[in-house]
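A reminder from the course coordinator: this example appears on the midterm review sheet, so study it carefully.

Given structure:
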């Protein structure tokens, strides 16, 4: 307590600074992190999808990579290339607008795991970052700036 007020005196020193910083960080809404994760990871997969197409058609390079470099088990390279191109365009768009966000993040997480396990196992730092963003979206949801939130709000009011 101070002599003039009934409030306790503010702590000083390094521990007080750390405590105040932690308090500030705890005020950052999880929905902000989720929204940023949604937009950031969508960009990564969209850019990857763009390397696979020329106009509206799958390019020869994409099929070549699936045949000779990626060599996914159980999937025909032609089919895998087409599925990857579709997924890398569809799910990022859904993430940006915030529609079916958790499902889209789950699909891209599955794709990330396939890439990590079968294609580039040494790229775990990159894939770990992608997985962290995608898991945040799956766990916390898409955030307030999303169609998912808008639709959920309408269903709650109707019930």
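Designed residues:
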């Amino acid at each position: 307590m101070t002599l003039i007020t009934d409030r306790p005196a503010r702590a000083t020193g390094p521990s007080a600074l750390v405590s105040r910083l932690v308090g500030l960080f705890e005020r950052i809404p999880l929905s902000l992190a989720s929204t940023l994760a949604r937009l950031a990871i969508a960009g990564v997969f969209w850019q990857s999808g763009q390397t696979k197409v020329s106009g509206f058609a799958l390019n020869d390079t994409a099929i070549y990579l699936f045949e000779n470099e990626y060599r996914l088990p159980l999937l025909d390279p032609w089919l895998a290339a087409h599925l990857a191109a579709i997924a890398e365009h569809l799910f990022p768009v859904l993430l940006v607008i915030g529609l079916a966000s958790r499902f889209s993040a789950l699909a891209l997480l599955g794709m990330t795991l396939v890439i990590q396990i079968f294609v580039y196992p040494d790229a775990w730092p990159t894939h770990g970052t992608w997985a962290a963003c995608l898991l945040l979206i799956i766990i916390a949801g898409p955030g307030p700036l999303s169609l998912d939130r808008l639709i959920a709000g309408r269903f709650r009011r109707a019930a």
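The helical segments are 14-26, 30-50, 60-70, 77-97, 101-119, 124-140, 147-158. The chain is about 70% helix and 5% strand.
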